[in-house]
Every structure is written in structure tokens, then in C-alpha cells.
């Protein structure tokens, strides 16, 4: 291992010249029960649901002894699950007890820009940041993680990530598994690697411009977890919380399972699949049926017909499900879920293009003082996102949920026909996304759009947009001086 020193990300990257062999990751014991993040405690004050979160340092057992230094929220590693209902007002008091500044971003949340927790809402050590907003979007499995510019990869890799579940009446009217931790399981899937002394290894190979690829998969921080299944169906809220690695989830017996939701909410109807890709930042809700007494493993398999990229396309064993001999609970998934009215293409008044290449977007690297796009509140827009082919990327937009209109001119696969906030952009491909912006306006504080491969984001594959009141200028040059 040679320390080559600095990249834009800082001194923490050690560049390794030895790369792990591909597609040969070690056997997994499945000897630890899957940890389930606690539901965060909250209290209602003057009609507002209040959560207290503290970012802190600690030590955790990630399978290499009890003393791996980690970061967590209200604990040593990861974070409690926040949960609130559509229509509720929430306030989160976020205290930073780390030794350095960070932020906390509500990924997938429609929220005023000043409450978004992006790179402009830094929380200094010892400070408390207290955003509040009204939950105004459908039931979904969102998540939250730090977003300090240039440092997001390191802060997430250390363990700062949690889920934020939104409930609503349309979802609760459906006969779906929803007993948290019993038949409704958050699954935060993250790959990690370790030095011999058990500390987290954040190095990247010389050949790995995409970022950190680990050799150990943790689910909710548990290496090689098993799940004792007591119900006929189990809902998994899958989150790819990894820095870099895309997964291609399937079961070892290739069984069908039902995709019921995407990043931003439930699908109109379940989609039956045998495998499901998820890139970093994406979520899916799936329902899996089990037979009494069986054991089945969740895996990630190499892409059929070719690799996504070297080192990011291994066969991985993720979790083992062990069904009891008598199973209760919900037996089947409803045929119809919720309405997801397609946004009509004709409603779009603006089209914008985003070319992902190198570590920039449209040839520009992220600049916190530059506004890239200005959007009129309430507008429907089509964003064309192209991967120029020199790397692997996905694309995430803050504040809005979008629908995928097409991928290289063709209809998206059925499991992508729901609300999304992050989407894989294959090499040499062009996606068209359609979205309707909301009414949280701010002429100074922007939202972000970026590649969610965190090293790319940190190195500058990110841009900033304002949502401004109707009638305001939409010329970015009019605003860029105001931010900093
Ligand atoms: Cu999950 Cu801008 O991030
Ligand atoms: Cu990228």
C-alpha cells in the first residue's frame, strides 16, 4: 500500500496498488441476527413532532472486534429511524458532537431549501441546527445522511446514515406488512473494508476512480446477518447506503418477489421481479413470500452480460432469511396499491440538459457560490440526463420527486414507473426525467443535484438550483453572487 496523499477529497484517501480479485468475495457465516435501528423517540410540542438527534463518535462491532471507531447518531453507528405522517409538522434538533463540522440532509424530502441539510447548512462542533417543515408528500422510505461539501463520502462511510419513513392514509389503508422490525424491515445495505487492526479502510484502488468498494456487506451495520421470519410475507425497505457500489439484488433460489415502492412512494401496482438493481442512494420497498421452515439468501449478483465496473460487480452474500415452521401475518400483496398519475409531457414548460462526464456536470465542477439553474415554483420541467460514457454515474435531485419518461427513448422498466429521486444513468445512455417543482421558494439558498456516487459528488459532480417565486428572474447570473 502506498500513500499517495491528497486528492480533492483530502488527506484521508490511501491509494492501494493491490486490488482485490473480482467476483470472489469470501464466504459469509450468517451468524448474527440482523440489527434493527430503533425508532427515534419524539414528542409533540405545540402540534409539532420534535426529534432530538446527536451526531457523535463511538466504537462498534462490525465483525472485526468491538472497537472499530465509527460515527453514529444517538449511538455509536448509523442512526435511529425517523417516522412521521403526511401533514405533520416536524422539527429536528440536530446537535453536532463530532470533532468537525457536518450537515444532515433529508434525502428525498420535499422541504424548504434552508431546512434541506445540504452543504449550505453546516453545523459546527457543539452547535445545534433546528430545521422544521411540514411533511407534504406520499408515504415513502426516505433516508438521511451528512452532506458537507467535499466530505460526504467520509462522513457517510464512518456510519452517519438512517431511514426516514413517511406514513399516509393511502398506504395504511392497504393490507401490507407494516409491523416495524417484525415483518417490515429497514435494510441499510453498505459495503465496507477494514484494516488488519479492525479500523475502517477508506482507501480506493488506483483503478477505482468511482470510489470506495468494500469486501464486507453490512446490513444495518450487521455483517452477515440472519433474519428470523415469523410471517408469510415480509416487507423489506431496501436502501443502497453504500458510497459507490451498485447492487443487483436477488435470492439464491431466484424466487420472484414483489416491488411495491420506489424512492418516493408506492407503485400503482406490485411488480414481480427476480432481481432488482439499486445504485447508491436509491431505495425500493419489496415484499417477499416465505414457506414454513425454509432458508433463503439475499444476494447481489454480477450484471448479466457484463460488469458495471471493475470491482463494483462482485457476487455478494447479503442476508439469510430463516422461516419458522408456523407463519402468520399478511399472506398476499394487494393487486392495486396507490395512484401515481403520470405527469403529462405536454405540461412541461422548460427542458434542461445535464451531461455527466469526468467529475463534473455540463463541464462545470460544483461551486458553492455559483447558481447553475433557476426554476420557477410550480413549474413542470423535463431534465435530460446523459452519461457521456467515461464513467459510472447516477443522478439525484433534491426537493422533488420525478418520473422517468424514457431511457434512450424506450419506456423505463416497470419497477422504475413510480416516484424517484435518484436513478442509475448507464454508460452512453440518456434519460428523460419529468418533475413538478413545489412552492418552497428561496432566492438565496439553493438545492443540489448530483451524482450519488459519493466520491464523484465530493469531487464536484454536483450543481445548485434555486426555486424562485413566479415572476422572478430565471437567469442564474442574477443570483450567483448572493450565495456563499
Ligand atoms: Cu443523498 Cu444530495 O443526497
Ligand atoms: Cu458519478
From TrEMBL:
Limits of the Plastocyanin-like domain: 58-170, 212-290, 347-469
Keywords associated with the record: Metal-binding, Oxidoreductase
Gene3D superfamilies: Cupredoxins - blue copper proteins
PROSITE patterns hit by this protein: MULTICOPPER_OXIDASE2
InterPro entries xrefs: Cu-oxidase-like_N, Cu-oxidase_2nd, Cu-oxidase_C, Cu-oxidase_fam, Cu_oxidase_Cu_BS, Cupredoxin
CDD domains: CuRO_1_CueO_FtsP (cd04232), CuRO_2_CueO_FtsP (cd13867), CuRO_3_CueO_FtsP (cd13890)
Pfam families on file: Cu-oxidase, Cu-oxidase_2, Cu-oxidase_3
Family to which the UniProt record says this protein belongs: Belongs to the multicopper oxidase family.
Protein name in UniProt: Multicopper oxidase domain-containing protein
Amino acid at each position: 500500500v502506498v500513500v499517495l496523499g491528497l486528492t480533492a477529497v483530502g488527506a484521508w484517501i490511501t491509494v492501494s496498488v493491490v486490488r482485490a480479485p473480482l467476483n470472489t468475495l469470501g464466504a459469509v457465516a450468517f451468524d448474527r441476527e440482523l440489527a434493527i435501528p430503533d425508532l427515534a423517540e419524539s414528542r409533540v410540542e405545540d402540534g409539532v413532532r420534535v426529534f432530538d438527534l446527536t451526531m457523535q463518535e463511538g466504537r462498534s462491532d462490525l465483525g472485526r472486534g468491538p472497537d472499530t471507531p465509527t460515527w453514529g447518531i444517538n449511538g455509536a453507528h448509523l442512526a435511529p429511524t425517523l417516522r412521521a405522517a403526511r401533514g405533520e409538522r416536524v422539527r429536528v434538533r440536530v446537535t453536532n458532537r463530532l470533532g468537525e463540522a457536518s450537515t444532515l440532509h433529508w434525502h428525498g424530502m420535499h422541504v424548504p431549501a434552508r431546512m434541506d441539510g445540504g452543504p449550505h447548512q453546516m453545523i459546527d462542533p457543539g452547535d445545534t441546527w433546528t430545521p422544521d417543515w411540514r411533511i407534504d408528500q406520499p408515504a415513502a422510505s426516505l433516508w438521511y445522511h451528512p452532506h458537507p461539501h467535499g466530505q460526504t463520502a467520509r462522513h457517510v462511510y464512518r456510519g452517519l446514515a438512517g431511514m426516514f419513513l413517511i406514513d399516509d392514509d393511502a398506504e395504511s389503508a392497504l393490507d401490507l406488512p407494516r409491523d416495524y422490525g417484525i415483518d417490515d424491515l429497514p435494510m441499510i445495505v453498505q459495503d465496507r473494508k477494514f484494516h488488519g487492526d479492525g479500523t475502517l479502510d477508506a482507501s480506493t484502488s488506483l483503478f477505482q476512480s468511482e470510489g470506495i468498494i468494500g469486501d464486507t456487506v453490512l446490513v444495518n451495520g450487521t455483517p452477515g446477518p440472519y433474519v428470523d421470519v415469523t410471517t408469510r410475507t415480509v416487507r423489506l425497505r431496501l436502501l443502497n447506503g453504500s458510497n459507490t457500489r451498485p447492487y443487483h439484488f436477488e435470492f439464491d433460489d431466484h424466487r420472484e418477489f414483489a416491488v411495491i415502492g420506489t424512492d418516493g412512494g408506492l407503485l400503482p401496482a406490485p411488480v414481480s421481479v427476480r432481481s432488482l438493481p439499486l445504485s447508491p442512494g436509491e431505495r425500493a420497498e419489496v415484499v417477499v413470500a416465505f414457506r414454513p421452515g425454509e432458508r433463503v439468501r439475499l444476494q447481489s449478483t454480477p450484471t448479466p452480460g457484463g460488469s458495471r465496473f471493475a470491482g463494483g460487480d462482485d457476487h455478494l452474500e447479503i442476508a439469510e432469511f430463516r422461516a419458522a415452521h408456523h407463519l402468520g401475518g399478511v399472506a398476499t400483496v394487494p393487486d392495486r396499491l396507490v395512484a401515481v398519475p403520470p405527469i403529462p409531457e405536454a405540461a412541461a414548460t422548460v427542458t434542461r440538459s445535464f451531461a455527466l462526464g469526468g467529475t463534473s456536470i455540463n463541464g462545470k465542477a460544483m461551486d458553492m457560490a455559483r447558481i447553475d439553474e433557476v426554476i420557477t415554483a410550480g413549474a413542470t420541467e423535463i431534465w435530460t440526463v446523459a452519461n457521456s460514457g467515461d464513467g459510472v454515474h447516477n443522478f439525484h435531485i433534491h426537493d422533488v420527486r420525478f418520473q422517468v419518461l424514457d431511457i434512450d427513448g424506450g419506456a423505463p422498466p416497470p419497477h422504475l414507473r413510480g416516484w424517484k429521486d435518484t436513478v442509475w444513468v448507464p454508460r452512453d445512455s440518456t434519460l428523460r426525467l419529468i418533475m413538478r417543482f413545489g412552492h418552497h421558494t428561496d432566492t438565496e439558498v439553493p438545492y443540489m443535484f448530483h451524482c450519488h456516487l459519493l466520491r464523484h459528488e465530493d469531487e464536484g459532480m454536483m450543481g445548485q438550483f434555486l426555486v424562485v417565486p413566479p415572476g422572478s428572474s430565471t437567469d442564474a447570473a442574477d443570483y450567483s453572487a448572493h450565495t456563499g
